[in-house]
Amino acid sequence: MSFLKSRTPQPTATRAWAAAALVDVVLILVFAAVGRDAHHRGDVVTGVLLTAWPFLLGAAAGWAAARAWRNPFSPTRAGVPVWLGALVGGMLLRAVTGQGVVLPFIIVATLSLAVLLLGYRLVAALIRRRRHP
Questions:
Q1: Residue 54 near residue 106 (C-beta atoms within 8 A)
Q2: Running DSSP on this structure, what letter comes out for residue 10?
Q3: DSSP string, 99-132
Q4: Sign of CA dihedral 13, 17, 18, 22
Q5: Which of 14, 58, 59, 124 is most enclosed, with most CB atoms within 10 A?
Q6: pLDDT by 10-residue block (mean), the chain, 133 residues
Q7: pTM for the complete prediction?
């Protein structure tokens, strides 16, 4: 029966990647909501989802490409690929679907998504190092 245990995902590991994925989704939605609030008025929920979906799909591609679930809070192994996936994938999907892709938006998205998607992972890494030197 020990072979069954080795194939069963560890609850802590499952919770870790689920938590990191949820934080990524929430932060991308926050990014979209702040941008929508600054530039557009109207239907808030639909507008935020319209803005966020390309970045969410890009982040999911980054998660898959990096297999981020293996170390979801790592700034380099998960954070950078998720950030670049959200940024590049998001911009490509926006361009293909006729949404705006202008240089000032690319700059703001690059910096904002980096701060959001890398920032909490850097904080988590610092806390982990302090607890386990």
A1: no
A2: P
A3: ----HHHHHHHHHHHHHHHHHHHHHHHHHHHHH-
A4: positive
A5: 59
A6: 48 85 97 83 84 97 96 96 98 95 96 98 93 79
A7: 0.86
